[in-house]
Amino acid sequence: MNIKKNMRTRGIAVFYRFLEFYPWVGDLLALLAGGLLVLAFAPFNLFPLAVLSTALLFLVWKSCTPLRALWRGWLFGVGLFGFGVYWLHISLTQFGGITLPIALFLNALFVMVMALYPAFLGWFILKVFPVCNKVRLLAALPAAWTLLEWFRSWFLTGFPWLSIGYSQLDAPLAGLAPLFGVYGVSWAVTFSASLLVYALLDGRQAWPVWPALLVLWGLGGVLTQASWTRSLEQPLNVVMIQGNTIPEIKFDPLHTQTILDSYLNLSRQHRDADLIIWPETAIPLFFHEATAIGFIDEVVQEAREHKTAFLIGIPVENAETGQYYNAVVGLNADSTEFYYKQHLVPFGEYMPFRSLVESWQKMIRIPFSDFTPGSKEQPLIKATRYAIGVSICYEDAFPDEMRQVLPNATLLVNVSNDSWFGNSIAPHQHLQIARMRALESGRYLLRATNTGVSAIIDDRGNIVAQMPQFQEGVVKAQVIPFDGGTPYSLSGNIPLLFIMFVCLLVGIVLHHYWYPAHHPKPV
Description:
This protein is α/β, with parallel strands linked by helices. It has helices spanning 2-21, 23-37, 48-60, 66-84, 88-95, 100-114, 116-128, 134-152, 177-201, 209-223, 247-250, 256-268, 287-292, 295-306, 354-364, 399-402, 426-441, 487-491, 494-518; strands at residues 230-231, 236-242, 275-277, 309-317, 324-331, 336-340, 388-392, 411-416, 445-449, 454-457, 463-467, 473-479, 482-483.
């Protein structure tokens, strides 16, 4: 046993001596770790890589300067976001009307900016915790990573894509999501990585690592079987229409009537449904225009005759103010209700800093809409006998915003249009995010999209039914409304953030005051 330990210790010493002479190897490993992390997310779903890739990053951060840690963190981010969100250029070239070189430049610029988050994390950890000991590994790193992911989710409107917790939806750690949300799962992933690194660096004192990992992952596995919400007695027969309308023809007036007929005819084949859902901007007309030609009256007549409620994605214009909204309208025999999208996509649905970028926008000729965000105090849609929490497009990527409708909403509905990103990994990543929202809330989430992936997700985040991409058809299933709330849906991120701040502050105190006095030569 001592021989094996000595060999392992010598191997680690040789590894870090090698990195000292050839630091570019550590840089390359950081870039590789970021690229490998993408494989942990959908559609690949190799969830163990989330732990292994972050462990590799933590290893190459061990013995370097804060500036080198910043550089390696940035390279990790380039690998993660470069491979993980390469699909942004697709919408710019195919539907934005700009040339491929400019689209690739903008995509690369976005990746480089997003990579600043792990870059800052590396600099911060090596600056504040210069000694690689158990305090840095087990207290500071997982807490700082979690706080930075949360910060990224809202800073400058937020980009929560590729938060590492999403990679664990089909793993035991998913059981933590109803308690602490996706960022709680992110902490568990990075804590597991830190445990592995600590065991590798100091096997003599790190024997508790394996019981700790067993308890953490075992507890998560047990919690996946827990029920946090109560199912209501009467289920709903739900049908979601996937019209497979690509952007090139959607807003061409020559195809408008064909699109309207297609959605209505597909709906008429399922007149036994309690609820029929059409995706985001399924109707390429403003609501008042669709009303003027009698189309809305046709839908209401269907609802009245067959006791069916409709949720339809359609833009709405306020005739008095001239403002227009990305909206969902709820139609049944007795009422017409609206939900207006609150969290708009910058540069896609509105132009931030208009006065500064308007001339630049004209130069590169990117078309953009100028939607108005809806109020944050909108009532729930009650087109059926149950209250429905509606979100549009990537609003479901923001857990704090999604939980605002809870616990009153018994169902969650997300209408989206991922056709902007073609046959890339983006729609699969978006579906994975939606699954996490269902798990966090303990509610079914019904996801209707124009070209896929349309799916019905149960209260445990499992896909009950789905429609393949780029096909016209329906997703049909019996859906169970739920009452009550998970711990996360009731309290949000506050408990977790408090714990993370405490871990970080205690870690700073221990690292700089207590640890040097008691351990003059830490590992």
